[in-house]
Amino acid sequence: MGNLIPRRHHRVFEEFIDHMRGLENWMDSFVGGDLLTFDKGVKFPKINVRENSKEYIIEAAVPGMHKDDIRISVENNVLYLAGKMQKQSMVENEDADYVLKELSHRSFERAIPFKDKIKHNINAKLKGGMLIIKAIKEEVKSNKKENIEIIEE
User: Fold this and answer.
1) pLDDT-based confidence at 139, cuts 50/70/90?
2) Residues contacting residue 115 through CB under 8 Å, at least 6 positions apart
């Protein structure tokens, strides 16, 4: 039966695909990459975990998210951070006769294990797109699951 696309057109499609990959790379660099490249091994949200003698401090960059978009829980000395956000924006321009609607959906799940046992009364604050979680080190007798409330400032 042969190829469905005549051989002389293969190069045109290869050039088109190369152009689209270049456009994708340009878009990734324009928006920082993190928002579009879940399938390339990029972890979202970006987190920092610091430790001192009394506590762990976790900082997570979650721009555009609200406390209702994020779930935090701890179980068996592992902090679970999950979130889901849907966003819709619309731009209308009557002079140019166009309407642009953009829908975006982001979701993530992260698990952060701790080497020391942590207390279950964990503090979480969300301010300016930065989520700061403080987990106090302590010997805990129970490994039951507990959900954490976020305070939005």
Assistant:
1) low
2) none
